[in-house]
Each structure stands twice: as C-alpha cells, then as structure tokens.
C-alpha cells in the first residue's frame, strides 16, 4: 500500500493516484535531503528533461493538495468556529465566577451578623420533625394490640411475635417511655404476650399428639367428629427409614440457623427497622397478606400434603422475611416438622421455653393415658367385641378341649362332623393350662396383638414429634440462653421463671420416652393381670439404673427438674410461682382425675386377660423398641436399654416361663396318667388317616401333641425364648415316651415275641423282609427279591426250630394286642407331628441347640424324639407280626405226633385251625380301626408263610396219614385261606401261593411210588430234598414203598 492511498482524490481524477505512485518515496521522507537531487540534476546529461519531470510531479502534488483542501474545507471552518465559541464561553464563565465570589463574600458578611438567630430556627425545625415522627409511631403502636389479636386468630403466631417484639422495642425508645398514653398499650402487650404464649403452647400440645391442623397423621382416636382435623396429612412418618434427628440438621446448616436463627434472629429483625416508622404494613400490604393467607388455606386443604419445594408454608404467609423463614422455605422437611420447628422458634423468641417445657412435662402422662383409653374405646367399637361374644368364644373349641389354669376339671372335645353329617371323631381328653381363646393364635392373643400394635403405633408417632421438639430445644439450650432473649425488655417475673427452672423446664428427649414406656408398661400389666407387686422388682431396678445415669454435677437442677420413677411414679416438674400461677389460670395445672390410678379398660376389648398374653405382646414391643431406637439420636440411643422391651423380657423370663413350665408339666402329667389316656377307643370299623375324620389316636398322646403344639406356638411368638420352650417340649416328650414305653412293656413283658425281636439275627432278617418297607422307620436299605424271599424262609425256619411254644409265652389278651396296634399308630402320628413342629422351630432355638454342642451334655433335638417315637411304633408292629406268626405255630404244632387216619371225607377243619382262624378274624376286626391297610398286611401277612412251612414240616413228625387225612389237611388250608382272604389289604396271591404249595405237597401222598418219583424228577426244585424224603418216610396205608426208595430218591435229586 502506498503512502498516498488515503488521500481524498475524486473518482474523475484517478490519474492523480497513478502520478503519485510514480513519485519516489524519498521525497516524502521524514528528514528530506535535497542535496542528492541537486547533484543528480547537475550531473545529468539531460538536465532539461529532469527539470521538466520534477515540475510535472510538482504540479501533480499541488493538484492533489488542492483536492485535499477542497475536501476538508468545511471541517476546517467548523473546527475554527467551535474553537472560537469555546473561547467565548470560557471568558463568560470567568466573569460569572468572579461575580459569585463577590456575592459569597457579601453573604458571608451578612450571615455573620445573624448566626445565633439561624441556629435557633434550625433547632426548632429538628424538634418539630422529631415530634411528628413520635406522633406517627404512637399512632402505629396504638394499632399493634388489635393487629396481634388478628394474627393470633388467624394462627399466624410467628408474625404476631414479630409484631410484638418490634413494638416492644419501639416502646423502649427514648421519647416514648415517658408517654403516658402508651401505658395502656404496654399493659395490653403484656397480656397479649401471655395469651400468645398459651395459644402457641396449646397448638404445640395438639401437634405433639397429632391432633393439630398440620399433624403428620389424621387423628383416629377421638370419637367426636369435630375433634378430628380436616387437614390432610402432609408428610408420611419417617420413623423407620432414618433417625428423626436429621430434620433439625437441615435447618442447622442453612444460613447458620442452628447458631443464630432463634435468639439472635428476632433481635436482628427488630434492629433492622429501628430507624424507620413502625407502621410498615399499610392497607395494601394487608390486602396482599390476606390474599396470601387465602391461597395458603387453599393449598393446605387441597394439595393432599404435597407442598412444592421452596414454597412458603401458609402459617408464615403474614410474617416478615427473615433468616428463619428463609431456612424453613428451603428446608425439605415434612410440613408437620416445619410447623413444630416454627412453634419452637416462637417459644424461643418469647423466652418461654422453660415454662413450656414444664407444662408439657406436667401434661404428658395424663394426655398419654387419655389417648390410650380413647384408642381402646375406638378399637372396641371397630371390633364389636362384647361380653356375649366373649362368652360364646369361650365355649368354642379350637383344636382340643382345655381347662383353665388351676382347674383339674377336664373338658370334652366337641365332635366334628363331616359334610355327610356322620360323626367321625372321638372325644379326647386334653389338659391345656389355657383356654382356647388364650392359646397361640386364639382370639384373645390376636385381639391383644392388634390392640397393642395400634396403641404402640400411635405412641411411636407421638414420640416422633417429641423427638423433633426435644432435639430442637436441646440444640437451642446448648447454644444460647433461650429464656432471656435480647430483643425483650427486662421483666422481673419472667426472668425469675427462667432462673428457677432448667433451660427447657425439665423437658428432654429422655423424659417423654420414659413416660411413654411407663404408660405402655402399665397397660401391659393390666393386659397381663400383673399386679404392681409382680413388677415391683423390675421397677425398682430400672429406677435405680436411671438414677445412676443422672448427671451428678448439678444437684440443684436435678432437684428442680424431673423426679420420676419408671414404673408407677407420676411425673412432677418444679416451676416458679409466677409461672405456676399462670398455668393454674389457664387450667393447665389441673391433672386429669385419677389418670394414672384408673385402668385403661382393656378388658372390654380383650376376650380374656392373663400372663399368657405376653406371647402376643412380645413382638409388638420388640418392633416398638426398634422404631424408637431408629428415631433417637446417637447420644440418646442408650435410653431404650432399660425400657419397655427389658421389662417385657424380664417378665417373660421371670414369671411367664416358670409358670408355663409348671402348668404344662401338670397338663402332661394329667394327660398321661389318667385311666383313659391309653385306652383304645374307636368309633368306626375302618381306619381313617386323619384325626378330623376319626383317626383313633390315644387320648393321652393326642393331648400331648396338642400341648407340644401349644408350647411351640409360644416359641414362635417369642423367638428369643424359643430355646427354653423347646427344652420344655423335649422334657414333656421324654416323659411321654417313657409312659408309652411303660405301656408297651406291660403288654409284651416276658413274652416270646418281645424276646425274639430283640435278637440280632431275627432283627436282621426282619429288616431284609420285603414287608418291612411299610414300617414307620425304615429298617434298612432296599433289598432284592431273592434276599427278601430267603430272609422270609430263614425266619420261618428259625420260628419252627423253637422249642414247643406254650400258651404262657404268647399274648393271649386281645386288648393288649389292640393297645399295641393303637399305640403304634398314635406314636407314628405324634412322630410326624413332632417332625413338622421341629421344622417350624424358630431359628434362635436351632442356633442355641447348635451352640450347645460344646457343652458336656448336648440337648437332643426334636428330630431325635421323632425317631424314638417311630422306633417304638415299629417295635409294636414287629411284636404284632411275630405274635401272629407264633400264634400260628402254636396252633399248627398239634399236627405233629399224631395219625391222620380219617374214615370219612373232611367237612370241617380241625379244631385248632378253627381256633386259629377265629382268632385271626377277631384280632383283625379289633385292630382294623387302629392301623392302616398296609400295616394290617404287615401284621397278618406273615401267617400264611409260617403256616405253610409249619404244615409241610409237620409231615416229618406224623406217624401215618391216609387219603382222608390228606383231605383233612387240605380242608384246613382252605379254611385258613378263607380267613386270610377276609382281611383287606392282605396279598391274596401270596396267601393262595403258599397254601397251594401245602395242598400240592400233601396231595403227592396220594400218588403211587413210581408216579411220585416221576413227579419229583420233573419238579425237583418245588420242594427241598428233606421235604421229598419226608413224603417217603411217612406211613401211607395202601402205598407200596420199596426198601430202596430213599436211595432212588437221592439218585433222582442228585442229577
């Protein structure tokens, strides 16, 4: 770019730019040197041409300058004119300043002569302005009482306190203290302070017990509709999700509210407006506040407790913005928590925390007592429980008949009828120490649990509010003197109140917790019918522990504070005379008549009362303690250690469990020692598998089963004590087993069948027998068919090899056999029940049993008792099976050492066979109702096998037999087969196969010798060589038997 490019050259003279571009830049240098150009021209050969060129360039430059001057001519003229104007104005200003200096000098001279008069006028104007301001303030203060009353009526307590504090500061200003017209205002403000305090206290008291407009739950414990708040619950209770102490930490972190938000906040609010007129709320502001209040009411009743975050609560709509209101607006706490925080803030601003705490402490126990009574009445109405319903419930049986504790009278179990109307059940004798209503799962237990759940849930929600208030008060008390706010003038009476009481009037988190648990404990004692003497030891121990935990450094505060015994002593709080007079005037000092002495009326709700209801009370108390523990701050977490749960556990351990053991031990003893306990009774001719349909379980064992179920029901209700209760059941089962063992031994003692099943060889063979698969306890692993057949044959040989069986060696009394059958089935029933109950035993008991392995004597578990019961039931069945086999051998041994030389066809079986078959039929009919079909097959199924073996073996001892004798024996087998066929569930094919073998064997005697040899040659495996040899040894009239018969038989069998 050239140095002349920016010149204002017209468009029609663009050639000038080209000419300028040809000029050497050395001509426009900052320091121009002409000598080189002069020398160049002088030394040039063509001087004229060079000079002409310079002149042309000079003309171009002059022309360009003319164009520039022409272009900037107007600007130059205007600049010159402006400069001239500036010079003119500057000259005029100089002249005026000189005149002003002259005038000021003259004014100074004139004012100096009247200085004193001007000062007097100025002072008078200032005084008049101050008087006008005072009159405006007096006019505003005169309207304060009516404004406060309106705010109180609208429940704008925080705004009312702000107005009160500001007006109090106004009245203490210089100039207003001597105004006589304001004395009435001061008096009205003093009265309004008391009224405002009690209004706030009333509202706080209502919200503490969930009766307020912003309570977390709608009150359901008051009978009158006008006492039920219409406000929808704003926020769900957080009693189980997180500790309640977090709610106060939210405000503590916002704007340093936890440090300065209460006591200094009110002072700061008043001092910021100290220099302005008090009447800051004009009519327009009032209209706006009224609209806000209306909106707030709409929100309160229509949004279903879902206030938007950062929205100002309705009760602060008329309040002046300050640090506390900003903290509340930003807080995420539920609405009822914010309201409680606001009320506590109001009390702190008033300096009335100690008085409020004292009143709350004084009214706590009567109020809780009234709430519990109201809750019981409401529960009674909802459940519609009446005395007639209770008496009717006492007459209905649940699982068996019971008798009341201390009574020895036995009740009969009502007979259950099936749908077809036929009675299938038998009356049982049960001796439970509790009535059906009090049994585990009974109506009284369910009613007690429902009632206590409802009451404790209400108590938890009340304590939730107390934790919020108590933690806030403790926080403020630890930071400031909350009873002497700086914003209030000194008041001798109220300062005396602050000095005479503790910082919070004795109200701490521990106090409501102790009183609430005490009232609940009294209710539980009423439900359990526990007299004060029964719990006096527990109460004394707990009171002593509480006394040890009390701080010792300030004896005066402890003397003036709470004096309370956990169990029965009412709460008392020491307050000043002035505060006490105020309380009495407001009616707070009156205690509820006989609130702690009278009962709660739980008997009207519960069908029955007694210490056994502790089982249904334990779990609600445990859940209540867990919820309370989750609410408490960490520093107060130890308060629940000596509370309601400890009392309940001590009561169960020291009173209920010993009583339960004694009562149930008596019941067990009565059940197993009565004459009818082991008396088989059946109301049907066939076996039924369920008790409801008439399964004839022995009454003693059925009663034991019911008692065991009841005790384990208590264990399930109280898992912590399940180990002790399971031990009780084990003790009862062991005692019952011994009684059953005694009954078993009375039936089988000194009998051959009992001795035989005790032999190891016979026990092993019976375990291998296929029929043993149906026994209650499996006697071994599965066996093959060949092993089963071989064991059966070997057993028969063992029984037949016994010495001659005498009648005294057998159980001749059919009743004993029926008892064994019934005892076997009853033992199996109890074993199955024990096994099911053992699986339902609480984990705590199982762990305790597992830990006891390290002890010297480890207790047995329920499964071992079930195995013992099943083993005894199996022994009963084994005795019955062996007894019937021995009975068969006893009758058939008459076939030996006799001659079967009959002279006519057999029409009737032998007498011993008739006796045997009649005995089989009689015993089968007697046992049929008591054992199942497969057990009947086991008991009677071994008869045919042993009868066949005995009949075949008897031939070896016969002296002679003829054709009619063979027919007689065949007739005997037919009679026996008919008797066995009459028994259901017995394997008919096996019976027929065994007896056909006997008939075939004896019919071989009718064959000639040669034909017999031919048969043996073809069927050498049908009978043993000994049995074939006996066919040839016996004397058969009319059969020719060669002398070498045995040799020829041996040759045939050897091939």
Automatic annotation (TrEMBL):
<keyword id="KW-0813">Transport</keyword>
<feature type="compositionally biased region" description="Polar residues">
    <location>
        <begin position="263"/>
        <end position="275"/>
    </location>
</feature>
<comment type="similarity">
    <text>Belongs to the SEC8 family.</text>
</comment>
<feature type="region of interest" description="Disordered">
    <location>
        <begin position="255"/>
        <end position="303"/>
    </location>
</feature>
<dbReference type="GO" id="GO:0006887">
    <property type="term" value="P:exocytosis"/>
</dbReference>
<dbReference type="InterPro" id="IPR039682">
    <property type="entry name" value="Sec8/EXOC4"/>
</dbReference>
<dbReference type="GO" id="GO:0000145">
    <property type="term" value="C:exocyst"/>
</dbReference>
<dbReference type="GO" id="GO:0090522">
    <property type="term" value="P:vesicle tethering involved in exocytosis"/>
</dbReference>
<protein>
    <recommendedName>
        <fullName>Exocyst complex component Sec8</fullName>
    </recommendedName>
</protein>
<dbReference type="InterPro" id="IPR007191">
    <property type="entry name" value="Sec8_exocyst_N"/>
</dbReference>
<dbReference type="GO" id="GO:0006904">
    <property type="term" value="P:vesicle docking involved in exocytosis"/>
</dbReference>
<dbReference type="GO" id="GO:0006612">
    <property type="term" value="P:protein targeting to membrane"/>
</dbReference>
<dbReference type="GO" id="GO:0006893">
    <property type="term" value="P:Golgi to plasma membrane transport"/>
</dbReference>
<dbReference type="Pfam" id="PF04048">
    <property type="entry name" value="Sec8_N"/>
</dbReference>
<keyword id="KW-0653">Protein transport</keyword>
<feature type="domain" description="Exocyst complex component Sec8 N-terminal">
    <location>
        <begin position="16"/>
        <end position="151"/>
    </location>
</feature>
<keyword id="KW-0268">Exocytosis</keyword>
<dbReference type="GO" id="GO:0015031">
    <property type="term" value="P:protein transport"/>
</dbReference>
<comment type="function">
    <text>Component of the exocyst complex involved in the docking of exocytic vesicles with fusion sites on the plasma membrane.</text>
</comment>
